[in-house]
Design a protein that fits this description.
Elements lengths: L1 H21 L4 E5 L8 E6 L5 E7 L10 H9 L3 E5 L18 H20 L4 E10 L1 H10 L7 E5 L14 E6 L3 H12 L10 E2 L8 E6 L11 H15 L11 H20 L13 H19 L12 H21 L9 H25 L10 H21 L7 H21 L1 H4 L2 H26 L2 H19 L8
Parallel strand pairs: 3-4, 3-5, 5-6, 6-7, 7-9
Antiparallel strand pairs: 1-2, 2-4, 8-9
Keywords: Hydrolase, Membrane, Transmembrane, Transmembrane helix
Organism: Roseinatronobacter domitianus
Protein name: Alpha/beta hydrolase
Length: 497
């Protein structure tokens, strides 16, 4: 059964990778020169003639990989496509800086970076001098403002748009795309459409894109803030809009990557089950606390940690709120482990084999699953500046997940106990945000990442714990994976005082 399951998982992984790589066929993807320290990728269709440039910018905590559905779609349509990592994101070694509350602060710096990339792209021999910008979420405001600056844009595609820079006349040829489940952003798209025609509705076009007077707002069905990037509607609308602006016609199929990426990720997670079954087996019972002891161990750290840290301003890591999160995880983990010690749960948890099993878990999560993420979803390979961030986060993440694993008996405890532990931690972070909303607002963005981590990696940790009877092995390994995941994905920021 184990071999059969592993074989099926490997076949699905190979099929998904083959399908995803087909979308790159006929394209040359290479670094773009002339962008300074900004990492940028140039997408060119082999044999295509000179064409307009499309500069693609990702949103907050994103990277070039996240925007690749648009890059591949437009490159296959013959456009000269450039996608890049903003300062503080992905492979970019330069941290974000400036005042995030001022248009003349961080926004201006990101606009300058976008303009620098656009000028480098326009200098390419395949560029015909025309230019469009496409941006998602945070970048929607950046590209709209940059289109009104130098070099100006002949068209703008704003995905999940919010921007106060839109007027009835500017920017020219604006297409606003939102996911159907992004209610507020859909209303914002409709608002900017009605600036040109108060009677216009979603799905209608006002003006004429061929005469630089076009504007359109559409919704992609059944998707949210990230899913919109993989939506066939969003990809087709973006390509068709640019074709209308530049007088082009495209017949190439739109790459449907979302389903294949989901299958690839799920198959990679599934491969962890037969791998876990190959570990040394132990049927010895894992110690579990009584009901009263469990509730105290689950709830006391969740309440005390945010209250104890509320008076302190923590700034020692160059990543937004990562310093607070590292300390929160560490305090929470230490308190949990103290309860584990008092309840007698630590005895026998750390034989020598626990550490090599922990290493295997970390390698699978970072190298195997992380390698898939880096290729097809989002940046997962750190530059040198992120190494201290990962190390700092590990000092908190390892004790936190070690305590979590021991209290849940490595997945052998009743399911409701695991759910209580996860919900208690999420509630603890929510309480921290409530106590300092302005300072810790960006923790809200981390919460979905942590939920996804619990669902995927928590499942794999349970397989390891139930097989080996060593909760500590899974806890240590997953702690390293969590530290890496947050350390490579959240933006680096150089604070100004």
């Amino acid at each position: 059964m184990r071999s059969l399951f592993a074989g099926i998982a490997l076949i699905l992984i190979a099929l998904s990778i083959w399908q995803l790589e087909q979308d790159r066929m006929g394209l040359t993807i290479s670094p773009l020169d002339g962008t300074g320290t900004t990492p940028a990728s140039l997408y060119l269709r082999d044999g295509a003639e000179a064409a307009p440039v499309v500069v693609i910018a990702h949103g907050f905590a994103g990277s070039r990989q996240l925007m690749e559905p648009f890059a591949l779609t437009l490159a296959q349509a013959g456009y000269v496509v450039v996608s890049f990592d903003f300062e503080g994101h992905g492979r970019n070694p330069v941290p974000m800086s400036g005042d995030v509350t001022s248009i003349d602060g961080t926004t201006r710096l990101l606009m300058e970076e976008t303009g620098r990339v656009a000028r480098a792209a326009l200098a390419h021999p395949r560029a015909d001098g025309r230019l469009a910008y496409l941006g998602h979420s945070m970048a929607s405001d950046i590209v709209i403002r940059q289109a009104l600056s130098e070099p100006p844009g002949d068209a703008v595609v704003a995905v999940s748009m919010f921007s106060q820079a839109v007027t009835a006349m500017e920017p020219v040829n604006l297409l606003a795309i939102s996911g159907a489940w992004e209610t507020q952003l859909t209303q914002e798209s409709l608002r900017v459409l009605k600036l040109t025609d108060p009677d216009a509705e979603l799905g209608q076009t006002t003006g004429d894109p061929a005469k630089s007077t076009g504007r359109r707002a559409v919704t992609a069905p059944m998707v949210e803030h990230v899913g919109v990037l993989y939506s066939q509607t969003a990809l087709s609308e973006a390509r068709d809009w640019l074709d209308a602006v530049f007088g082009r016609s495209s017949a190439e199929p739109v790459p449907l990557r979302g389903g294949w990426i989901a299958l690839l990720l799920l198959s990679t997670v599934a491969l962890g089950w037969p791998l876990a079954r190959s570990l040394p087996r132990s049927d010895a019972p894992c110690p579990q606390p009584g009901r009263r002891g469990f509730w105290l161990a689950a709830l006391v750290p969740a309440i005390i940690t945010p209250l104890a840290l509320a008076p302190f301003e923590l700034r020692f890591l160059p990543v937004l709120v990562a310093d607070y999160l590292a300390v929160h995880l560490a305090v929470y983990g230490v308190l949990s482990l103290l309860f584990c010690w008092r309840l007698g749960l630590l005895r026998g948890q750390f034989p020598a084999r626990a550490f090599w099993i922990a290493g295997a878990v970390a390698i699978f999560g970072i190298a195997v699953f992380g390698g898939v993420l880096d290729r097809y979803v989002a940046s997962f390979v750190p530059h040198a500046g992120r190494v201290p961030v990962i190390a700092g986060l590990a000092l908190g993440a390892v004790p936190f997940l070690l305590g979590d694993a021991i209290l849940s008996a490595g997945g052998r405890a009743p399911l409701w106990r695991g759910l209580v532990l996860r919900l208690a931690f999420l509630g603890s972070l929510a309480l921290a945000v409530a106590l300092d909303f302005e300072g810790l607002f960006f923790l809200v963005i981390i919460l979905p990442v942590i939920v996804l981590f619990f669902l995927l990696f928590g499942t794999m940790g349970g397989w390891v714990g139930r097989r080996t009877g060593l909760p500590a092995a899974g806890g240590i390994g997953l702690g390293l994976v969590l530290a890496w995941s947050i350390g490579v994905s959240f933006p680096m920021f150089q604070a100004t005082f």
